[in-house]
Amino acid sequence: MNWGFIAKEAFRGLGRNLTMTVALIITTALSLVLVGAGILITQATNETKALYLDRVEVMIELDEEISATDTDCSSPACLEVRDELQSSDGVEQVTFRSRQQSYERFVELFGQTDPDLVRETTPDALPAALHVRLKDPTDPSPVEAVSQMPQVAVVTDQADTVREAAGTMDTFRNATFVVAAAQALAALFLISNMVQLAAFNRREQIGIMRMVGASRWFTQAPFVLEAVVSVLIGGIIATAGVWAGKRFLVDPLMGDLYASQLVARVPDSMVATVMPAVTLAAMVLGGIAAQVALRSYVRK
Question: Which NCBIfam families did the record assign (predicted)?
Answer without folding.
Answer: FtsX_actino
